[in-house]
């Protein structure tokens, strides 16, 4: 049994990666990324809080910056509504207790009234804290 089975996330797809070629650590990081994306589509801010450091700052495509709680409030009240999220061509790097996932995120979303498919290339950074991979700010 694979403890990092990405098929448990119905609203998240991972494409362009040979998952069997990833190490257990790399799969754990990608699983945390996919779990976070699923929580976004479910507007599950409790799970999002488990996976995101308290000091996280979110930067939107528009350049708008939000604290973790400001962002979560927008997800909770529907101003940000995610339907599906694709993780395309992820490259997962792990070095000690730090990791990053570089990919193209494909968001089927309604962002502040703008409904569409939004493609964004970027890097998501993680840190191992208390045995769990947490999203953190770039350092």
Can you offer a commentary on this structure?
By secondary structure, the protein is α+β, with helices and mostly antiparallel strands. It has a single domain (10-136), classed as Roll (Nuclear Transport Factor 2, Chain: A), CATH 3.10.450.50. It has three helices and seven strands. The strands form two sheets. The chain has a five-stranded mixed beta sheet with strand order 1-4-5-6-7, with helices on one face. A two-stranded antiparallel ribbon has the order 2-3. Strand 2 and strand 3 (65-67) form a beta hairpin. Helix 1 (24-42) packs antiparallel against helix 2 (45-51). The longest helix is centred in the first third of the chain and has 19 residues, at 24-42. The protein starts with 11 loop residues before the first strand and ends with a strand. 25% of the residues are buried. The mean pLDDT is 94.
Characteristics:
alpha+beta; Nuclear Transport Factor 2, Chain: A; 5-stranded mixed sheet; two-stranded antiparallel ribbon; 3 helices
């Amino acid at each position: 049994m694979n403890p990092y089975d990405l098929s448990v996330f119905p609203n998240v797809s991972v494409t362009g990666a040979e998952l069997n070629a990833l190490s257990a650590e790399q799969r754990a990081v990608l699983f945390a990324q996919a779990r976070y994306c699923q929580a976004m589509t479910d507007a599950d801010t409790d799970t999002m809080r488990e996976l995101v450091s308290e000091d996280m700052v979110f930067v939107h495509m528009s350049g708008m910056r939000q604290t973790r709680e400001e962002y979560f409030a927008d997800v909770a009240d529907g101003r940000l509504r995610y339907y599906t999220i694709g993780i395309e061509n992820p490259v997962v790097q792990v070095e000690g207790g730090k990791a990053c996932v570089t990919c193209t995120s494909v968001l089927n979303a309604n962002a502040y009234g703008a409904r569409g498919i939004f493609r964004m290339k970027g890097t998501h950074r993680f840190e191992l804290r208390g045995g769990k991979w947490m999203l953190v700010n770039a350092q």
